[in-house]
From TrEMBL:
Organism of derivation: Suillus subaureus
Keyword terms of this UniProt record: Hydrolase, Membrane, Signal, Transmembrane, Transmembrane helix
InterPro entries on file: GH, GH79_Enzymes, GlcAase_C, Glyco_hydro_b
Regions crossing the membrane: 639-660
Protein name in the entry: Glycoside hydrolase family 79 protein
Amino acid sequence: MRLFHPLAFFLVILSSLVNASVTVYHQVPFADSTATTSAASANYTGAAAYDPTVLTPPPVPAGFTTQFGIQLSSSSATMQGLSIPQKGSFMGFSIEFTVVNQIFGVNATYLQVPFLNLMALLRERAGEVHIRVGGNTQETAVLVDSLPGGVMVAKERGTTTDVTATPTLLYTAEVFYTMANISALVNTKWFLGIPFNDTSNLRLAIAEVGEAVLSGPGYLLGFQVGNEPDLYAAHGVRPSTYSPSDYFGDFGIVAAAVNNDANIPVKNNLVAPSITGQWTPESVWDTGLIGSYSSSLGALAVEHYPTDNCFAEYGIGSPVVPQDVFQNFLNHTSGINIIAPYLNSTSYAQASGLPFIMMETNSASCGGLPGISDAFGATLWALDYGLQMAYSNFSGAMMHVGGQDVYYNPFTPPPTNQSAYHQWTIGSIFYSTIVVAEAFGPSGNAQIIDLQANTDNMFTPAYAIYENGAPVRLVLLNYVSDPSGASDYTTTISIGGSAIGQSNATPAQIQVKYLVAPSVSEKSNITWAGQTFGGTFESDGRLTGSENVQTINCDQSSNTCQVTVPAPGAALVFLSSNAYAESGNPSTQTFSTTAVTKTANTARVDPSVLATSNGMSGATWEPGSTSKGDIGAGLRNSLSVVSVVGAAVLSTGVLCTWFWS
Ligand SMILES: *[C@@H]1O[C@H](CO)[C@@H](O)[C@H](O)[C@H]1NC(C)=O
Ligand SMILES: *[C@@H]1O[C@H](CO)[C@@H](O)[C@H](O)[C@H]1NC(C)=O
Ligand SMILES: *[C@@H]1O[C@H](CO)[C@@H](O)[C@H](O)[C@H]1NC(C)=O
Ligand SMILES: *[C@@H]1O[C@H](CO)[C@@H](O)[C@H](O)[C@H]1NC(C)=O
Ligand SMILES: *[C@@H]1O[C@H](CO)[C@@H](O)[C@H](O)[C@H]1NC(C)=O
Ligand SMILES: *[C@@H]1O[C@H](CO)[C@@H](O)[C@H](O)[C@H]1NC(C)=O
Ligand SMILES: *[C@@H]1O[C@H](CO)[C@@H](O)[C@H](O)[C@H]1NC(C)=O
Ligand SMILES: *[C@@H]1O[C@H](CO)[C@@H](O)[C@H](O)[C@H]1NC(C)=O
Ligand SMILES: *[C@@H]1O[C@H](CO)[C@@H](O)[C@H](O)[C@H]1NC(C)=O
């Protein structure tokens, strides 16, 4: 049976209206890519976001083990090494400031419905979504009263000397209202950046207006002070001697200005240092930054890309051949290696009482790598990398979203002049964010551990998530690509039991959702619990297809449950029906069949609940139809109803389908 998400259903009714009015600047022209994907795509000249390059999956590793056990303690008290408590919003997005009008919509009343649908999917699972808006463009951005044509952002080309040719960004306060409207619908919370290109002429308007519009309802997370300051010298925007102590001084100037600005009520939400790895984090901590500015700092952050495609993009560095480095993304060592330089810092941050955030990351800088960043291999990689960061006591990880000219976007709107006949392209790593949202759920209390499973190899990592002392979910990955099925593995899970001196605690049944694709090279046929966003230009931001959740009967006498993980693929295992329901899944009464299919009209929301739920105003309430089929008639001309529906559905966190009373 087809799942209708009610919010998605309503929003999509509006989508033609919305799509018709999107304005995009400096769009990369691109060739039609309805052509089928093939390896012979080296001559593709269109936009990177739709590049059809398909790589060859690495061979099946020799001696791959397909059977192993996982033993869990029934209590977190005896599980050494659990992370700090994590939120379902752990994995969020970093959106380049210049593309907000493409991603969010042209203004506060014309929002991009597919974007709202995508965020709604995450909010349903995690309760909220964290988004950083910034990037290189934040440094020179200027808030202006109005722009020609009534637009809310515009770029001035060629006005900065930065080698990345970053344009100066002009924007109006409408950007903040747009963000606030999005937040009211899907509970997004925002990091912004204070322009830092010139500390003798600070432009604090982003903090003044941003606070005024976003802070009240709790939508503002903080302001970055500087973006990648360890690259300033290389980019030619500071003297070649620019060092951590110079950054310390510049940070102090901003902190003092914020303290002295009566229009910035919150003084302690600044984020530093957002370095990329050219400077070690320790070299910044050792300036005394945290101690000196403890009353200004809200979070510590870094930004990092494990490799780059800058030679192809800008002729900088050395060329990278995607096929040669594909395998580097396809094992558990990748995430561990990327994070290793930060372990001392996550511990230092914890001791300092500050969250430590990966503020901008993705598979490769300068746009990502064709055939890697946009394929299922990156889905598994980003899932493992994200969970590894959570296990390593980061408090968030933002996957970067660029424009049409990058390969790694979690989501890409169609070029403006094609929005009438093309939909959005959902990138392979968006699936990773859904799985992370479900794995942690909305409690804010999820602790994760890397189980070091199957130490025979690095291709089958596994994580357990504990909540309130008990194991609730497992994430199992299989990086191997083997269409024969011979590399699917089966793990035997035990919770408690005499082997570890505990009583048996393995449940009678577990639920399993699978994240699968035919190979790690796959770009369009990626499914999460049987549902997909489809391929290039195919999505309105909703998952399509019927949901398929497996129920597995455990053997309580032997205290074991067996879960098979396909090659390639990942499994999210729910160890109780509560753990399943909490992650945005319906609280189904029983799980007696092997597949759970959501049915229509199983849940219902009282308008009085709507009137008091988060992020919405009772005054904007308008009744809809009682029938799913003709609901559109009452909604077509009313965005305010959409906001009511969005706020209500998602704040209750229980709905898969509903009807109006
Ligand atoms: C879309 O706009 C680009 C850039 O102006 C142009 O090159 C391309 O031909 C247009 N495509 C269509 C289908 O109109
Ligand atoms: C791609 O480019 C190569 C080298 O320039 C050329 O030999 C080949 O014919 C081109 N392929 C297609 C399909 O145009
Ligand atoms: C928002 O954009 C739409 C479409 O371009 C336009 O009709 C409307 O006037 C704009 N609203 C504001 C407040 O600028
Ligand atoms: C969205 O923003 C506009 C402009 O600020 C405002 O008038 C409108 O009420 C908002 N809409 C919703 C649904 O919150
Ligand atoms: C900083 O950016 C602003 C706005 O883009 C620009 O006017 C100014 O010249 C820049 N200052 C420096 C020192 O680069
Ligand atoms: C960890 O970071 C602190 C603060 O910078 C530093 O003093 C200490 O030496 C670092 N420890 C290691 C092992 O790098
Ligand atoms: C695993 O990944 C690491 C780090 O990316 C890479 O160096 C290594 O070559 C990979 N190993 C295999 C067997 O592919
Ligand atoms: C994460 O923090 C917890 C709590 O302080 C600690 O026990 C654990 O060892 C840390 N994990 C890592 C990988 O540093
Ligand atoms: C999609 O992939 C699944 C395996 O993940 C496979 O069973 C199915 O046949 C594929 N569908 C298409 C249309 O290729």
